[in-house]
């Protein structure tokens, strides 16, 4: 018998999917600028990248505002409680058909591994991308005011490093969406807001 | 529109236009009494000019067009055509009667020329509106009798009607400036690469400013003259001009012939995103770098290399000969050696702050490697330097093996010592040394040299400007320019390897994990 839970509000879903689209666009156009592929010409890649970056910045500002006004920021408070059991589940229990050890509720939407991963995105990857990206974007005007050891090369290296972290996060994140009680359960929840439970 | 109506529209247009062009100046020289007579010589014309334009000769005499002599205030070097050396015809002295066909004076044939004689100033050279020529060999005089253009050429120039030229005097034009500046180095387009006769009536694609489909600029629109002193010079270049445009009427000490003096330093307007990105480039790049995609695009080839050491090959009858390429352009001349020509040439790029130093007649050179006749200075990334397009010209030319100096040969004036008539380097170099006063050991060899020419004309319309990938790619045009880091051109290969490896491992990891889940699921179902 399946119990249903309204887990993700309309704003969360909008935020999630527009962020996903923008980050994929940014990764794709960013690696074109970087020269890793030639599926976009340089000028188009730069323009797409810059426009998507502005949209993402706007979205993030809005999302940060939302998280603080709704108290949802608490979802990312890291915890070590039960982390071993959750890890063990993904390493073993998932193959034996064991139930997920973590019970999701509206107050605790993320299991301990998710919390750490999302917190990593929020406090490590995003700030790296923001700061290096804004330096990159305004380099023409900043160059004269930064110390000599900081060149565009260093800024670009940090930005690329953060992009690789985001790419790795994206790969693992997309895979883990298939680990619900059915392969599409999590994805469906992120679309409709309703999560089914065993 | 009927033919009649179209015709009357044209008539109306002409009726409106003709008086305007006549009234552009306040004087119609064809009506001047002082010009209603025949003139015996150029000097005679000049004396007539100076009766009204009392200061004109003094003004001209204060400029490099007259002195061919210039001390660069930045470097203290004595420059100017009088003493400078180059890789083309090498030097002026001993060849004055030939070279001075481009001097704004009459009769400078040797060191005895009187630089203070105002009647020797040639007003017509710059202010004629047609039918005025000065032939090489006449020391700056126009032909006043029917004259063979060069000895033995069989081509003749008709005498110039000085009175007719004087009565049709006008402002300078692309053609009058080009008469000398297009033909430097002995032929059309030879020296500069961005200045040749194709600019007399350029299509829009060749020069957006000078095209009659555009604003139809003459040279003096940018190279503004004040008291005959003309702004802008390749031997003291304004390489960076990071300022707003000069307002009409504004008193400014700035060079009016820079791009920025009209366009300012943030000139791109198109789309918001793209324009600001392009404008940020003006701190690093000269406008010319993107807006002159190639030089010598007008159908006139420019010389890219000249090998003097092969002078003197003769045909089976012992006569000098010319070899032409498929397009009919000379690539070997017994008198001058081998040439490499270029059309539609992609420039080289260098950091340039406007300071140029030159090998001087007494500079000791090192013949073991290619000798740079001039060096463009500029520190990578410096506020006063920009990346500029240049033409790199290569030559192989004579030098003194003992004194280690470049030598000036006597070439062009038909006599027993002239290289072009006797093919004897020993005699030609001795005669050249006698004229320049340079010490000469009598032992000569040939040395490879290079010379840079700033590319600044032939500005293309914006749709022909370089696209981003011309520089932001692994085949970057700026590959040889030091001290820059370009997205798309450079990347950290260690980070790339590491990043893509880890991403690949992550992908592999989740795929294996997923596969194991499927296998485990199948097995559970079976039992």
From TrEMBL, chain A:
Topology within the bilayer: Multi-pass membrane protein
A GO molecular-function descriptor: iron ion binding
Superkingdom assignment: Bacteria
Limits of the Cytochrome b561 bacterial/Ni-hydrogenase domain: 8-193
Transmembrane segment boundaries: 20-39, 51-68, 116-138, 158-178
InterPro entries: Cyt_b561_bac/Ni-Hgenase, Di-haem_cyt_TM, Hydrogenase_cytochrome, Ni-dep_Hydgase_cyt-B
Keyword annotations of the record: Cell membrane, Electron transport, Heme, Iron, Membrane, Metal-binding, Transmembrane, Transmembrane helix, Transport
Major location category of this protein: membrane
Compartment(s): Cell membrane
GO biological process, one term: respiratory electron transport chain
One Pfam family of this chain: Ni_hydr_CYTB
One Gene Ontology CC term in the entry: plasma membrane
Membership in a protein family: Belongs to the HupC/HyaC/HydC family.
Name listed for the protein in its UniProt record: Cytochrome B561
UniProt organism field: Stutzerimonas stutzeri
From TrEMBL, chain B:
InterPro entries in the record: Multihaem_cyt_sf, Multiheme_Cytochr_ET, Octahem_Cyt_c
Signal peptide: 1-24
Keyword Membrane: yes
Pfam families tied to this protein: Cytochrome_cB
Keywords associated with the record: Membrane, Signal, Transmembrane, Transmembrane helix
Transmembrane segments: 498-520
Top-level taxon of origin: Bacteria
The keyword Manganese is annotated on this UniProt entry: no
NCBIfam families: octaheme_Shew
Name used for this protein in its record: Cytochrome C
Organism listed in the record: Stutzerimonas decontaminans
């Amino acid at each position: 018998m399946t119990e249903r839970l309204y887990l993700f509000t309309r704003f969360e879903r909008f935020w999630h999917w527009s962020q996903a689209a923008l980050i994929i666009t940014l990764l794709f156009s960013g690696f074109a600028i970087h020269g890793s592929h030639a599926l976009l010409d340089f000028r188009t890649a730069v323009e797409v990248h810059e426009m998507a970056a502005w949209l993402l910045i706007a979205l993030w500002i809005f999302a940060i505002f939302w998280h603080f006004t709704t108290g949802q920021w608490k979802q990312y408070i890291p915890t070590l409680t039960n982390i071993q059991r959750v890890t063990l589940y993904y390493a073993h229990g998932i193959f034996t058909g064991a139930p997920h050890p973590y019970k999701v509720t509206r107050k605790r939407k993320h299991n301990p591994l998710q919390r750490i991963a999302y917190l990593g995105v929020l406090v490590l990857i995003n700030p790296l991308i923001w700061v290096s990206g804004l330096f990159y974007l305004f380099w023409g005007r900043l160059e004269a005011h930064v110390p000599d050891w900081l060149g565009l090369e260093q800024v670009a290296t940090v930005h690329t490093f953060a992009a690789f972290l985001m790419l790795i996060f994206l790969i693992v994140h997309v895979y883990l969406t298939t680990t619900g009680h059915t392969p599409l359960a999590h994805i469906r929840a992120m679309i409709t807001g309703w999560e089914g439970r065993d | 529109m009927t033919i009649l109506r179209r015709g009357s529209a044209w008539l109306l247009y002409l009726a409106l236009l003709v008086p305007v062009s006549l009234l552009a100046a306040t004087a119609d020289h064809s009506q001047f009494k002082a010009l209603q007579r025949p003139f015996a010589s150029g000097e005679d014309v000049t004396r007539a000019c100076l009766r009204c334009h009392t200061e004109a000769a003094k003004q001209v005499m204060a400029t490099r067009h007259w002195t061919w002599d210039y001390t660069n205030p930045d470097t203290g070097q004595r420059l100017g055509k009088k003493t400078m050396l180059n890789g083309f015809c090498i030097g002026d002295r001993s060849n004055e009667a030939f070279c001075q066909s481009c001097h704004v004076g009459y009769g400078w044939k040797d060191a005895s020329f009187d630089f203070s004689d105002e009647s020797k100033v040639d007003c017509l050279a710059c202010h004629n509106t047609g039918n005025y020529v000065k032939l090489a060999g006449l020391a700056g005089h126009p032909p006043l009798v029917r004259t063979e253009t060069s000895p033995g050429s069989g081509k003749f120039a008709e005498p110039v009607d000085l009175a007719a030229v004087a009565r049709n005097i006008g402002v300078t034009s692309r053609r009058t400036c080009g008469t000398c500046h297009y033909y430097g180095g002995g032929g059309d387009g030879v020296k500069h690469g961005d200045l040749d006769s194709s600019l007399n009536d350029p299509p829009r694609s060749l020069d957006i400013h000078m095209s009659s489909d555009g604003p139809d600029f003459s040279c003096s629109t940018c190279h503004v003259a004040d008291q005959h002193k003309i702004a802008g010079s390749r031997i003291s270049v304004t390489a960076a001009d990071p300022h707003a445009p000069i307002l009409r009427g504004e008193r400014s000490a700035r060079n009016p012939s820079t791009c920025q003096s009209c366009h300012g330093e943030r000139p791109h307007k198109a789309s918001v995103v793209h324009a600001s990105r392009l404008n940020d480039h003006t701190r690093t790049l000269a406008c010319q770098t993107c807006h002159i995609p190639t030089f010598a695009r007008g159908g006139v080839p420019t010389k890219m290399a000249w090998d003097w050491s092969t002078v003197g090959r003769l045909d089976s009858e012992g006569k000098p000969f010319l070899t032409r390429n498929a397009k009919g352009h000379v690539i070997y001349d017994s008198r001058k050696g081998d040439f490499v020509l270029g059309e539609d040439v992609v420039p080289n790029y260098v950091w340039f702050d406007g300071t140029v130093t030159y090998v001087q007649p007494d500079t000791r050179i090192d013949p073991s490697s290619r000798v740079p006749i001039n060096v463009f200075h500029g520190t990578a990334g410096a506020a006063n330097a920009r990346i500029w397009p240049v033409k790199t010209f290569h030559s192989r030319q004579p030098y003194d093996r003992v004194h280690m100096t470049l030598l000036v040969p006597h070439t062009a004036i038909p006599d027993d010592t002239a290289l072009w008539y006797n093919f004897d380097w020993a005699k030609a170099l001795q005669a050249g040394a006698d004229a320049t006063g340079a010490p000469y050991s009598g032992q000569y060899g040939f040395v490879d040299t290079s010379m840079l020419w700033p590319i600044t004309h032939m500005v293309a319309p914006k749709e022909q400007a370089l696209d981003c990938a011309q520089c932001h790619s692994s085949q970057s045009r700026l590959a040889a320019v030091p001290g820059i880091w370009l997205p798309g051109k450079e990347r950290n290969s260690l980070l790339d390897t590491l990043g893509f490896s880890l991403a690949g491992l992550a992908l592999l990891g989740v795929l294996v994990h997923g596969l194991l889940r499927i296998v485990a699921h199948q097995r559970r179902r079976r039992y």
